[in-house]
Amino acid sequence: MTFLRSFITFLQKNTWLAALLCALPVFVYGLVFSQIALNVNYVAFDDILILGIIPGFEDASWLERWQRLTDPFPEHRLIFSRSLVLLSYYVFGKVNLVSLMVIGNLCWAGCAAVFYAVFRRLRLSLWYFVPIVWLWFTIHSFENMFWGVSSLCNFGLLLFAMLAFYFATHRPRQLWASWLFALAATYTYGNGIAVFPVIIFLLWVTGRRREFFLTAGVALLVGYVYFLGFPQKTDSLDFSDFQQVKEGLAGFFGFIGSIAALDAYTTDPVPLGLAVVAGIAIVGLFLWLFRRDILPLFRSVLGKPLILSPAGQFALILMVFVAITSFAVIYKRIPLGGFESLFKGRYRMYTALALVSLHFGALAWLVPSRRRRWGLVAVPLGIFLNLAILYANFAGAVNNRRTAIVQEFNARYNTDWLGVRMFDMDQAHYEKIRAYYQSADPLAEGWNPNAATDQLACAGDYALDSLFPHSDEIHVYNSKEFIDAERDYTDGPYLLLKSDSHVYASPPNQHALPFDTFLNMQRYFSRGFEGSFHQANVEPGRYRVYVLIRKNGRNAIYCTGREWEEK
C-alpha cells in the first residue's frame, strides 16, 4: 500500500506525463489517417450518390434546393454533408474527398473537446482524462475515418449530439443552443432524431418542467417537418419471430460491447460472442455505478426530480443515447442481415461512446478512494485496447484503401459493370460525378485497360498458388512472396482478369501476422496475398489472369500462365 500511495503521488505531481499520454493517441490517429486517406470513392457508392446533388443545384429554385438537400438517403436527412459538398464545389471548383474526411475527423476530435469541457468541471487530475482519449482515438471505426461522406454523417452527428447534451447538462440557461445542435444532429444522420427525445427525458427526470414542455414542442415541430415525405419503411424486427428476437437481444449488447471483438470485420463467432459479453458487462457496470439513483430515477418519472451533478447527467444521457441507437440498429438490421450485420466498422464508434459514458459515470458517482482505483485500472486498459485495435485493424484499413482504388478501376473500364448498375446509375453518370472530385487512377498508369485484346505486354512471369471458384467468387492465392509498400499504401500486387472486351481488377488482401510473430520477425503483414472476383460482376467470356505489381508508384504487369472461363 505504501508503494501504491507513492506511485499515485508521483502521478499527481507529474501532470506533464498525463498531457503527453493524452497527446499520443491523437498523434497516432492522425498518422494513420495521413498514411491511408485517399481522394477516392469508398467501398460503397455513397460518395458518388451524395455528390449527385451538384448537377443542376445552382439553377434550381429555392424550394427545389431545399428538397434536394433534405431528400432521404435512404432514410436519413443529410443536410450537413450535402451542404459541405456544395460549399467545397462552389469555393474550389471541385470536391476533394480527403478534405471532407478531414472535416469529419475534426468533428470526431471535437467530441473529445466536449468531453474535456465536461471533465474540467469535475476538477480532477488530468490523469482521469487519459482513458477517454485512448478509448476515443482508436481506429475501430476506420470505415468512417476514410469515407468522405460517411465521416461527415457519422462523426458530424456525434459532434452535434455531444454539444446538444453538453448545453442541456452544463449550460441549462442556454437550452436554445441545445435545440440548435439537436436540430443539426437530426438533419445530419438518421439516429440524430433521437437527440431531442434524450434531452426531453433529461429535462423531465431532473424536474425542469417548463423547459420540458418547450423542448417537446420544438421536437414535435422538427419531427413533423422531418418525416414529411419520408420513404416507405423497410422491413423491421418481427417480435413474433423468436429467432429474430433472440438475435436482436444478443445484438443489442453486442453492438454496445463490439470493442471486445477488436477486428472491425470479424465474423468469427468467438469474438462476436465476447462482444455480447462485453456489452452486458458495460451495461451491468453502468447500472452498478448508478445503483443509488435507480430508484430515484423511477420516482422522477412520477414527478420527484432526480438530483444529479452535471457530469452525472451527461454520463446518463450518453448511455441512454447509445441504448436507443443500439435498439434502432437491431430493429432495422436484424431482418436484413441478422446478428452479424450489427458489427459493421462504421458502427464501432458507439462502443467507444458507451465506455466514455461509463468512465464519466465512475468519475461522477464513485467515492474518491474507489475513483483512484478505477483510474489505475482505466488508464492501462484504455491504452491496451487502443493499441490492440490498431494492430488488429490497420491491415483492414489498408485493404479497404486498395479496394476503393479497384472499385473505381472496375467502374471506369467496364460499361456494363454490375457494381455500378446495382446503384441505379450508368457509367456515363458515374464519370460525370467522378469529374467533380477528380480522383487519380493509379492502376491504369503505363498501359491501356481499354485495349481490345486479352494479350498484355508482360515484364516477366509470376506464379500463383491456386485459382478456383468458391461461394460465387473466383479466388486467387499466393503465399510465397511479400511485397512491401514503398511510396504509399497504393503499392501492392493487384490481380487482373483481361478479355478482349473486359478488364477486372482485384485488390491484394493482406493480413496482419500474429503479434508474437510480429515481435520475432519485425514484420506486420503476412507473406503473400489473396484476391477475389464476384462472379456476378464478371461478364461471360475467356480471361487471362495477370498480376499488376505497383511498387514505388509505378506499375509492372506479369503473366501468370493462368486462364479463367466465366460462363
UniProtKB/TrEMBL annotation:
Annotated transmembrane regions: 16-38, 97-119, 148-168, 180-206, 212-229, 272-290, 311-330, 350-367, 374-394
Keywords: Membrane, Transmembrane, Transmembrane helix
Protein name, per record: Uncharacterized protein
Species, as recorded: Persicitalea jodogahamensis
